[in-house]
Write a structure and sequence with these properties.
The structure holds three protein chains of three kinds. Chain A is an alpha+beta fold. Helix content of chain A is 36%, strand content 18%. In chain A, strands 16, 17, 18, 19, 20 and 21 form a six-stranded mixed beta sheet that branches. In chain A, strands 1-2-5-4-13 form a five-stranded antiparallel beta sheet. A five-stranded antiparallel beta sheet of chain A has the order 3-14-15-12-11. In chain A, helix 7 (251-258) crosses helix 8 (260-274). The longest helix of chain A has 22 residues, at 6-27. Chain B has an eight-stranded mixed beta sheet with strand order 2-1-8-7-6-5-4-3. In chain B, strand 6 (72-77), helix 3 and strand 7 (101-106) form a beta-alpha-beta unit. Chain B folds into two domains: 3-140, Alpha-Beta Barrel (TIM Barrel); 143-171, no CATH class. By secondary structure, chain B is α/β, with parallel strands linked by helices. Chain C has one domain. Chain C is 20% helix and 26% strand. Chain C is built from two helices and five strands; from the N terminus they run βββαββα. Classes of the chains: A alpha+beta, B alpha/beta, C alpha+beta. At the A-B interface, helix 1, helix 2, helix 6 and helix 9 of A face helix 3, helix 4 and helix 7 of B. The structure holds protoporphyrin IX containing FE and iron/sulfur cluster. Protoporphyrin IX containing FE binds next to loops of chain A.
Chain lengths: 551, 171, 105
């Protein structure tokens, strides 16, 4: 966990007081909405269908329990008692009043939480692997670097008015849980032959209207040079990124239009000018940041405690354990994923009571730490295995032990037409219906790993392009229609899905997904062949036939 | 439109010329880039200071040969959402060591002052009188800066190192 | 629903209102004939031709301190004069999300 020092705290407080002044000027009419819009966006405030929406950053997905309680407090005091965890390690509140926002921000600032740059055309929250620091086989804790980059990109005097938003993600594991290939910059932490830390740098990924998988522009940038290298990328983008058309303004379009090679040459040239500047970071600076991340004092515990052995007889516990508990780098501990996808519930929502209760559980069982991942679930990163049965019982009481992590009902969905002013169609009710259709755990388990992603419009906040099954809401003659793709994936083998055919109506979506799943169950070569592998082997055709034969 | 320079509201000694305004006899002038570039020698010979208005989509390299001779460079923010001139400003100050007046023009609100100061601007054509009057107060709004830029303010990383070392000495 | 935020040319096909979100708290409001805003659709000013719609929108845009993001939205007016939203989006804006909220209010 990163502990803010006086310097970080001062900055956040200064930001809050600036925003308080801006809100005051807005409400008095001194600032027009046109002028204010970008200022509020830079502080995480959108306008939605019903109200303002407030997006708060959870840098690299790490939360302390007092921070989670502060989020619960904001949900309760300023909103309607719940929050929505997004795919980019943020939480959103849907019913905030502008006049109260400065107070909400001030309450959050007390525990070192901010909403700076969670929207707007600037550097967004730098995300990372939600298992950072605890995943076995990780090269190094990527959050040290996320934090370094977070600081560097916060209120950046040159890059706060970019052509478009800019997202960076970092992973340090072979299995990419941070979806770096769909980010503007994806950083893969690696070691060179001398054992020095550096990064493979990917640029130009993104979804939206024109999805692109990021391309590697440099195989190794030394850690000490990472800030100057990022600065070079941003400088090229700030000057040459398109500003004439918002749909062509992301860096992915610049990279595409210039070509990866020319783009990387531009960056390289700029970088040579600035790499030996104050941006070069010495080891001491890294050490200082590292020293402010604290790690638990783990106990020496057995690999297989009695408590776990005994609980294994309980089928419900086992079902949950098999799917929610992952190996930890320290023997005797586990990483526990907490599903925010209950049957019939909106994906990613948590109530203030759940947040508070979870904070208590984290204090009791996870050294006071909670993680937020891009799948809209939470995690407790340091749970002693002997505590798993007790933790499970407590989670179950809170409605937080749905054993569906990575299964078909672990759906990623954007807010869609129920909340979002840009939406063409609803997303959440589709997700809810699907979780009811596949509520039977045996069935879901039989199907195995299958990611469904739903977006309510082409902006792709629900990452539908990279869902194993992707569902995109569009509008046709005033009606909600859904286009369905299969074969996408967001991990290290990231790929975009392919359309299976014409769009289907709201009421038909769940049936179509059932058809696709039935086709898969009939077509897979063996039970271990995952949906995504079957699609890869056979292509779209057999699924298309199955779905449209009767329609 | 009030001009803020050196932290105060001041009279603007420069007159802005369009591409085709006849050249005044004396006095300080700000000339659009294309006119300046096509006629630099003549312009620079006349009495009175000469500054140039440089659009944000024109390569700054082209201006570099004249930097020792112009008295002011005015960069342009067509809207405050368009941040290209921040990069131009930093390049002028930090890479090309330009030391003359660096003026921000266009849609300039108080909410950009800190960014602009950090990028190297020292003069501001402010859209609203109230913002111009609030300049000093707004400019002091922040005391913590995470990035090193040409303005030389101590960054957070640096300050931490200083703190670390002074603690080290004490113990 | 194509987002009305992308509304470019103003041409209405039937009875319409101007709707927006109130600046200080963000709630959904409708422009009234008395040149104010109301949270109650039944108090909205109804326009029936493009010129009136344009005028109502222009007046609403000018009241930037009162409400933000005004646009023209279709409504249905029943025989009893009752006003109902003209599409799903506006229905949702009026009656709230179509899903159960985690916390009932
Ligand atoms: C509710 C209000 C929201 C609005 C108005 C909104 C708007 C947008 C827009 C316009 C884009 C496309 C940007 C572009 O390609 O230039 C986008 C992308 C994205 N949104 Fe949202 N979004 C919202 C909520 C969410 C939520 C709740 C999530 C997570 C569950 C989310 C996650 C994302 C992600 C991951 C992208 C990235 C796709 C990419 O980078 O290409 N957004 N959003
Ligand atoms: S994908 Fe579209 S509908 Fe969904 S949240 Fe993003 S902008 Fe809104």
């Amino acid at each position: 966990m990163y502990a803010y020092d006086e310097i970080d705290r001062t900055l956040v407080n200064e930001r809050v007081s600036e925003f308080r002044d801006q809100v005051k000027r807005r409400l008095s009419g001194e600032l027009t909405e046109d002028e204010f819009k970008i200022l509020r966006l830079q502080n995480g405030v959108y306008l939605q269908l019903h109200a303002y929406m407030f997006r708060v950053a959870i840098p690299y997905g790490t939360l302390a329990t007092n921070q989670l309680r502060a989020l619960a407090h904001v949900a309760r005091k300023y909103d309607r008692g719940y929050g929505h965890f997004t795919t980019r390690q943020n939480i959103q509140f849907n019913w905030i009043k502008l006049a109260e926002l400065p107070d909400a921000l001030a309450d959050l600032a007390k525990v070192g939480i901010h909403a700076m740059q969670t929207s707007g055309n600037n550097m967004r929250n730098v995300t990372s692997d939600q298992w950072a620091g605890v995943a076995p086989g990780e090269i190094e804790d990527p959050r040290i670097w996320s934090e370094l980059i977070r600081q560097h990109t916060t209120l950046h005097p040159e890059f706060s008015f970019l052509p478009r938003k800019f997202k960076i993600a970092i992973t340090a594991s072979d299995h990419d849980r941070a979806a770096i290939k769909i980010h503007d910059i994806g950083l893969r932490l690696i070691k060179n032959e001398k054992g020095e830390t550096g990064f493979g740098v990917l640029v130009g990924g993104g979804l939206g209207r024109t999805p692109f998988i990021a391309k590697t522009i440099k195989h190794f940038v030394h850690g000490r040079d990472i800030l100057s290298y990022i600065e070079a990328i941003l400088r090229v983008y700030n000057q040459y990124g398109r500003r004439d058309n918002i749909y062509k303004a992301r860096i992915k379009i610049l990279v595409h239009e210039l070509g990866t090679e020319k783009f990387s040459r531009e960056v390289e040239e700029e970088w040579q000018h600035i790499r030996n500047s104050l941006l070069q970071i010495d080891d001491e600076v890294i050490e200082d940041i590292r020293s402010r991340f604290t790690y638990p004092a783990y106990e020496k515990l057995p690999h297989m405690p009695d408590e776990l052995r005994q609980a294994a007889a309980d089928r419900d516990f086992e079902a949950w354990r098999k799917n929610s508990v992952a190996p930890h780098k320290v023997q005797g501990y586990s990483i526990v994923t907490i599903s925010l996808k209950p049957t019939g519930g909106p994906p990613g929502d948590a109530t203030a009571e759940q947040m508070d209760a979870l904070a208590d559980l984290a204090d009791k069982y996870s050294f006071g730490e909670i993680r937020v991942g891009h799948e809209q679930n939470l995690a407790l990163p340091h749970v002693a295995k002997r505590d798993l049965p007790a933790l499970w019982k407590s989670l179950d009481k809170l409605g937080l032990a749905t054993p569906n992590v990575n299964l078909i009902t672990d759906i990623i969905a954007c807010p869609g037409l129920d909340y979002c002013s840009l939406a063409n169609a609803r997303s959440i009710p589709i997700a809810q219906e699907l979780t009811r259709r596949f509520a039977n755990h045996e069935l879901a388990n039989l199907i195995g790993r299958l990611h469904i992603n739903i977006s309510g419009c082409i902006n792709a906040c629900g990452h539908h392009h990279v869902g194993h099954i992707g569902i995109l809401g569009v509008e046709k003659n005033g009606e909600e229609v859904y286009q369905i793709t299969i074969g996408g994936r967001a991990d290290e083998s990231a790929a975009l899905g392919n359309l299976i055919g014409p769009g289907v109506k709201f009421d038909e979506v769940a049936d179509v997904v059932e058809d696709i799943v039935e086709a898969y169950l009939a077509l897979r070569e063996r039970p271990e062949e995952l949906f995504i592998e079957t699609v890869k082997r056979l292509g779209v055709e057999p699924f298309k036939e199955r779905v449209y034969a009767t329609r | 439109m009030p001009l803020v320079n050196g932290g105060k509201i001041v009279d603007d000694s420069f007159v802005k010329l369009a591409v085709d305004t006849p050249l005044p006899e004396g006095g300080d002038i700000l000339v659009p880039a294309e006119r300046f570039v096509s006629d630099a020698d003549a312009l620079l010979k006349r009495a009175g200071k000469v500054g140039v208005i440089w659009p944000n989509n024109r390569d700054i390299d082209e201006l570099v040969p004249y930097l020792g001779k112009v008295a002011a460079v005015a960069l342009v923010f067509p809207t405050f959402r368009d941040g290209r001139a921040y990069s131009q400003a930093r390049l002028l100050r930090e890479r090309y060591n330009y030391r003359g007046e660096l003026r921000a023009t266009g849609q300039i609100l108080r909410d950009q002052f800190v960014f602009m100061l950090r990028a190297g601007f020292d003069s501001f054509e402010v859209k609203k009188q109230a913002d111009a009057e609030a300049f000093m107060q707004t400019a002091k709004r922040y005391s913590v800066f995470y990035q090193p830029t040409g303005d030389g303010r101590v960054t957070a990383l640096h300050r931490r190192m200083q703190l670390r070392h002074s603690e080290g000495v004490g113990t | 629903m194509t987002s009305p935020l992308e509304q470019k040319k103003i041409k209405i096909a039937g009875p319409s209102v101007v709707t927006a979100n109130r600046t200080w708290d963000g709630i959904v409001v409708y422009r009234t004939a008395a040149k104010g805003w109301s949270a109650d659709l039944s108090e909205a000013a109804i326009v029936r031709n493009s010129d009136d719609a344009k005028a109502l929108l222009a007046e609403s845009v000018a009241d930037d301190v009162g409400a933000i993001g005004p646009y023209i939205a279709p409504v249905q007016v029943g025989e009893d004069g009752k006003i109902e939203p003209g599409n799903l989006r506006e229905q949702i804006r009026r009656t709230g999300v179509t899903i159960g909220q985690p916390v009932q209010v």
